[in-house]
C-alpha cells in the first residue's frame, strides 16, 4: 500500500513538471477586481459635549454612587506607613504588612457606570509591598463621579460607551494622594441596555484651565498645539499648549529673561527650555512677562499606539478627549486613535 501511494505521488509530480510554465502576467483586474486604496485607522468613539440636560441616568435606584464609593477612601494624602488598600474580606487578611484595612460594612458595593477608556492601560502598583501589574485598566463614570478600575487581563469584552454593573470587593490608592483612588478588585457585567442612546455615547466637558482634583477620572476635551510630540523616548508623553510657539532659529535670546521664564514655566523642563522660554525672550532687550506663559496639558499615549507608529507632529493644532488621571502627572489618558483629532492641516 505504501509503495502504491509513493508511485502515484511520483507520477503526479512528473505530470506537473511536464506542463508549460505560465509566462504571461496575470491581468490586474483578475488580481484586484477593485483597485486597492489606503486609509487611516480611525477607531471612532462617540464623544458628545455634555449639555445641561445630558446625563447617563446612572446609577439606578438602590445602587451605590461612585462618589459615595470614593468617600470611603482618604480625602487627603496619606503617609507611607498608612493603609492604602481597603477590602471587604472579613477574617484573616492575606497581608501582614498592616497596610490593608477591612471595610466589611461598606464592601462589597454595587456600582454602575459607563466605560470611558478602552480597557488596555498598563499600571504597576504596590499591594502588600509587592508590585502588581495590571494590563487592562480602564475608567468608568456615572452622573456623580468617575474612578480608575485596575484589571490584569488584556482581553477586552467591552469598549468606551458600554454601560456596566460592577461588584466592588477592594479599593486602593495607587500612590499617596487621594487623586489616585482606584478599584482594585471587582466583577464586571454588561448591562442589558449597554448604551444610553443605542450608540455608546461618552460625554465630555471642555477644559480651558489647568487640571484640578475635580477633573480626575472625568472626561475632558482640550484644544491647542502639540508643543511636545509623543515618542518611545519620552514614553508617549504629549504636551498640548493653549497657544502656538514658533521656532526662533538663531535669533538672539535674552539670558536673564530666559532664566526668569524657566523658573515660572510649568509645562515640563524640556518644553520650557527649548520652546516656550526661547520664544518669549527673543531679542537682546527682551523682558520676561508671566502673562505670556501658556496653559499646558499633559497627555499620556498608550505604549501600543506609539509602537504602531501613531503620533502627533510637533506644532499640530489638535483636540484631545479622554479621562483625566493622576499617573505620575495629571494627564489625559489616550488608548484609541479616535481620541485625538487634528483640527487643521496648516
Describe what you observe in this structure.
- With 346 residues, the protein is α+β, with helices and mostly antiparallel strands.
- Among the domains are: 47-74 and 81-91 and 98-190, OB fold (Dihydrolipoamide Acetyltransferase, E2P); 207-262 and 290-342, Nucleic acid-binding proteins (OB fold (Dihydrolipoamide Acetyltransferase, E2P), Beta Barrel).
- It is built from 6 helices and 16 strands.
- The strands form 2 sheets. Strands 11-12-13-15-14 form a 5-stranded mixed beta barrel. The protein has a 5-stranded mixed barrel with strand order 4-6-7-9-8.
- A hairpin with a 1-residue loop joins β14 (317-327) and β15 (329-334).
- The longest helix has 17 residues, at 2-18.
- The protein is globular and about 80 Å long.
Give the SSE map.
Layout: H1 2-18, H2 28-31, E1 47-49, H3 66-70, E2 85-87, E3 100-102, E4 109-115, E5 121-127, E6 130-141, E7 146-149, E8 163-173, E9 181-190, E10 202-206, E11 219-228, E12 237-241, H4 255-264, H5 269-280, E13 296-301, H6 303-307, E14 317-327, E15 329-334, E16 340-344
Parallel strand pairs: 1-10, 2-3, 7-9, 10-11, 13-15
Antiparallel strand pairs: 2-8, 4-6, 4-8, 5-6, 6-7, 8-9, 11-12, 11-14, 12-13, 14-15, 14-16
Helix pairs in contact: 4-5
Amino acid at each position: 500500500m505504501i509503495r502504491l501511494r509513493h508511485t502515484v505521488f511520483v507520477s503526479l509530480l512528473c505530470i506537473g513538471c511536464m506542463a508549460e510554465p505560465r509566462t504571461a502576467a496575470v491581468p490586474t483586474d483578475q488580481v484586484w477586481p477593485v483597485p486597492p486604496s489606503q486609509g487611516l485607522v480611525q477607531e471612532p468613539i462617540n464623544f458628545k459635549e455634555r449639555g445641561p440636560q445630558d446625563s447617563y441616568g446612572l446609577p439606578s435606584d438602590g445602587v451605590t454612587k461612585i462618589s459615595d464609593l470614593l468617600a470611603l477612601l482618604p480625602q487627603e494624602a496619606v503617609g507611607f506607613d498608612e493603609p492604602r488598600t481597603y477590602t471587604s474580606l472579613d477574617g484573616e487578611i492575606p497581608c501582614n504588612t498592616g497596610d490593608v484595612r477591612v471595610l466589611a460594612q461598606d464592601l462589597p458595593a454595587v456600582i454602575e457606570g459607563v466605560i470611558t477608556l478602552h480597557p488596555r492601560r498598563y499600571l504597576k502598583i504596590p499591594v502588600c509591598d509587592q508590585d502588581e501589574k495590571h494590563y487592562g485598566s480602564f475608567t468608568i463614570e456615572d452622573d456623580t463621579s468617575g474612578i480608575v478600575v485596575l484589571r490584569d487581563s488584556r482581553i477586552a469584552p467591552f469598549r468606551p460607551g458600554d454601560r456596566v454593573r460592577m461588584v466592588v470587593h477592594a479599593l486602593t490608592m495607587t500612590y499617596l494622594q487621594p487623586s489616585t483612588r482606584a478599584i482594585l478588585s471587582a466583577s464586571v457585567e454588561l448591562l442589558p441596555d449597554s448604551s444610553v442612546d443605542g450608540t455608546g455615547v461618552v460625554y465630555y466637558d471642555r477644559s480651558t484651565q489647568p487640571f484640578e482634583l475635580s477633573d480626575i477620572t472625568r472626561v475632558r476635551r482640550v484644544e491647542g498645539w502639540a508643543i511636545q510630540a509623543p515618542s518611545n523616548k519620552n514614553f508617549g508623553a504629549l504636551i498640548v499648549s493653549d497657544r502656538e510657539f514658533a521656532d526662533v532659529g538663531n535669533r538672539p535670546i535674552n539670558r536673564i529673561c530666559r532664566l526668569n521664564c524657566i523658573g515660572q514655566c510649568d509645562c515640563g523642563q524640556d518644553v520650557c527650555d527649548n520652546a516656550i522660554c526661547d520664544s518669549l525672550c527673543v531679542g537682546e532687550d527682551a523682558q520676561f512677562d508671566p502673562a505670556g506663559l501658556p496653559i499646558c496639558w499633559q497627555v499620556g499615549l498608550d505604549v501600543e499606539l506609539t509602537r504602531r507608529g501613531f503620533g502627533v507632529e510637533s506644532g499640530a493644532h489638535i483636540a484631545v478627549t479622554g479621562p483625566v488621571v493622576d499617573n505620575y502627572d495629571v494627564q489625559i489618558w489616550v488608548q484609541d486613535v479616535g481620541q485625538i483629532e487634528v483640527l487643521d492641516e496648516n
